[in-house]
């Protein structure tokens, strides 16, 4: 049984074919070549009003037959590296098969600069929203997905966001950085007792203050404005324990945030190397869940 009883919502009663909005690409249709785009114009913030002369890139994988939905992809790596293959470009290819644009984010690693990954995730969402028309995306259907520490980043983006600064001279910063939905796969969520210690130290440093631990324990940051969230985690994950997903799901339920938690009976961390029945299960069920959200369309 793949679903916890408490998590059986609308999605379980629909077969995979029900999610026709995410149908396979037309036979023979060719996807456009990926586009690699810098998001900071060579000057990226590091906090406290300071900047570094560097660039952060997103790679935009557009489907051959777009349905208007896009997902910013945050690979894992413990905040010490980026697994951009199986948890990045591979995910974009899967999304493209279902008409969804996949946007792989090569976020900066914190290295003592705690807010840097979040800055990049927020900017990536704003950038996709600002170029939605150009990339055939509905600006009201832009989500975020993350894996492991990338799941922590995605959950941070889903709990720490703003509506944009209408007074900014930068038109990208005028847009909202709130994702319209969040998909979290074996995510790090908490910076507390159940955290992944390597991710915590890389993000917060060796001796973080209680305030920072709480701020980045995202199960404590959920509120009624948190976007709809899908989570999946293997019960035998010993690297990032499944209590992380459970805590976030329960917080979503407490705040009446549309949410679903898929408990997988096996697969460990990484779900058997991004393949097999457990990997297939979260992909199938997340598409069904996403189709059932019926996100409102937005004019660009």
- The residue fraction in helices comes out at 25-40%
CATH third-level topology: Rossmann fold
Which CATH architecture is right? 3-Layer(aba) Sandwich
Query: What kind of oligomer do you see?
Result: single chain
Total E-strand runs: 10
Low-confidence stretches: 1-21
Give me the secondary-structure category: alpha/beta
**Count of alpha/pi helices:** 8
Q: Could you name the CATH class?
A: Alpha Beta
Order of helices and strands: EEEEEHEHEHEHHEHEHH
Strand content: 15-25%
User: For the terminal residues, how far apart are their CA atoms?
Assistant: 42 Å
Main beta sheet strand tally, sense and closure = 8 strands, mixed
Strand ordering within the main sheet: 1-4-6-5-7-8-9-10
Principal-axes geometry comes out as globular
Give the full name of the CATH homologous superfamily. Answer: Alpha/Beta hydrolase fold, catalytic domain
Mean pLDDT: 91
Whole-angstrom Rg: 18 Å
Total separate domains: 1
Summarize the structure.
By secondary structure, the protein is of the alpha/beta class. It has helices spanning 85-97, 116-130, 149-157, 197-204, 210-215, 243-254, 271-274, 277-293; strands at 35-38, 44-47, 50-52, 57-61, 70-74, 101-106, 142-147, 182-185, 229-234, 259-264.
Short key terms for the protein model shown above:
single chain; 300 residues; Rossmann fold; 28% helix; disordered N terminus
Description:
The protein is an alpha/beta fold and 300 residues long. It has a single domain, classed as Alpha/Beta hydrolase fold, catalytic domain (Rossmann fold, 3-Layer(aba) Sandwich), CATH 3.40.50.1820. 28% of the residues lie in helices and 16% in strands. The chain contains 8 helices and 10 strands. The chain has an 8-stranded mixed β-sheet, sandwiched between helices. Strands 2-3 form a two-stranded antiparallel ribbon. Helix 1 links the parallel strand 5 and strand 6. Helix 2 packs across helix 3. The longest helix is centred in the last third of the chain and has 17 residues. The N terminus is likely disordered.
């Amino acid at each position: 049984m793949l679903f916890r009883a408490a998590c059986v919502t609308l999605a379980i009663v629909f077969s995979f074919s029900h999610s026709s909005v995410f149908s396979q690409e037309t036979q023979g249709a060719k996807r456009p070549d990926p586009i690699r785009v810098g998001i900071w114009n060579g000057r990226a913030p590091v906090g406290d009003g300071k900047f570094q002369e560097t660039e952060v890139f997103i790679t935009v994988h557009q489907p051959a037959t777009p349905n208007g939905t896009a997902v910013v992809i945050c690979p894992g790596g413990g905040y010490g590296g980026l697994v951009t293959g199986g948890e990045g470009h591979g995910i974009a290819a899967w999304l493209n098969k279902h008409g969804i644009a996949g946007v792989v984010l090569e976020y900066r690693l914190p290295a003592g600069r705690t807010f840097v990954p979040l800055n990049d995730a927020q900017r990536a969402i704003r950038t996709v929203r600002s170029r939605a028309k150009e990339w055939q995306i509905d600006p009201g259907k832009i989500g975020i997905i993350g894996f492991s520490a990338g799941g922590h980043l995605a959950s941070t983006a889903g709990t720490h966001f703003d509506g944009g600064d209408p007074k900014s001279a930068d038109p990208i910063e005028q847009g909202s950085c709130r994702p319209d939905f969040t998909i979290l796969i074996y995510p790090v969520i908490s910076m507390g007792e159940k955290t992944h210690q390597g991710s915590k130290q890389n993000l917060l440093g060796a001796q973080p203050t209680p305030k920072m631990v709480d701020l980045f324990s995202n199960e404590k940051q959920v509120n009624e404005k948190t976007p709809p969230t899908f989570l999946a985690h293997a019960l035998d994950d010993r690297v990032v324990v499944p209590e992380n997903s459970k805590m976030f799901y329960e917080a979503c339920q407490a705040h009446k945030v549309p949410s679903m938690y898929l408990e997988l009976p096996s697969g460990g961390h990484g779900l058997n190397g991004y393949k097999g029945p457990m990997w297939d299960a979260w992909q199938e069920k997340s598409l069904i869940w996403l189709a059932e959200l019926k996100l409102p369309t937005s004019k660009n």
